[in-house]
Specification:
Elements (H helix, E strand, L loop, with lengths): L3 H16 L5 H12 L4 H7 L9 H37 L18 H15 L3 E2 L5 E3 H4 L19 E3 L2 E3 L5 H9 L4 E10 L10 E11 L4 H16 L5 E8 L2 E10 L16 E10 L1 H7 L7 E8 H9 L12 H4 L3
Parallel strand pairs: 1-5
Antiparallel strand pairs: 2-4, 3-4, 5-6, 6-10, 7-8, 8-9, 9-10
Helix pairs in contact: 1-4, 2-4, 5-10
The chain binds 3,4-dihydroxyphenylalanine.
3,4-dihydroxyphenylalanine (DAH) binds next to strand 8, strand 9 and strand 10.
Amino acid sequence: MDLKPIEELRARFGEKLAELDTTNLQAVADFRTRFLGKKGEIVALLKQMGSLLPEERPQFGQRVNDLKSMAEAAIEAALAKARETRMNRELEAGWIDVTEPGRAVRAGSLHPLNETREQVIDFFRGLGFEVAGGREIETDWYNFEALNIPPDHPARDMQDTFYVADGVVLRTQTSGVQIHVMENQKPPIRMIAPGHVYRCDADATHAPMFQQVEGLVVDEGISFADLKGILFLWARELFGEGTRIRFRPSFFPFTEPSAEMDVSCFDCGGKGCRTCKGTGWIEIGGCGSVDPAVFERVGVDPERYTGFAFGFGIDRIAMVKRKISEIGLLTANDNRFARQF
Ligand code: DAH
């Protein structure tokens, strides 16, 4: 009986196993197919048994089976090694150093304009005021005429207007919202209307787009004293406990009497400093008792109802509070500026 093919195969197996890249799972799998597969070299040997004498078969079979067991064990070991190598590679690739310090996430903060607008809204909401919307593209009627500013009235010169079309403007003031609200709602009315307004104007403290907040209260028996009381509370809320207010006579076509309201400088307490340009006072905006002519235009009975209104610049308030010297910075969208707040 010729046992040489078995020994040759054993030797070849040993040689190839020594050459095998045991870190390569595919190579090990191919290797197993080559020797142990259904068409592999070891099975081929077993098939030769048919040509042997019956008494030779057990010994031959025994030898081939020994070879097969040895090969199985060796390949199993190689596979285990390849799997381990692959796992280690994967672990290495996904390696995370849990001791490394984290990257700080920059938390955002409110933009000074939004901060001021939110403070104003919070305060007046707390007093039961409704927040009204409005439209930025407005007709001449709502922006001017209904507010008692007829065509060619000199008051129009106070506000350089962007005309969109004949009789249609970018609103120059939020005061027109007063008209919309009174058209749609019967007194008592308590509303504020924050929003953007537009004027053809540009220097360090004037921008073509800025924000105002309008206020309107209409009911029986409302007087200028109510206006003073509420705006005094508001000034203290916004600028601090010790804040004083003063009213200077002024003119607006839609209020009579009209006033400009100033608050004592929160920086120097009224002595005079850079923030208040040495005057001790900071100008906040206009206000007054609603002119009966406006009530007549919207069908509110001026014999029965009185009211007050005010209009303040949100940008202006944000600028004095945050000591911002150029209005353009508020809308320049520059992170170096915005991050400071
Ligand atoms: N609309 C005025 C302006 O933009 C400000 C203003 C003054 C509003 C008096 C008012 C008011 O409601 O009563 O200059």
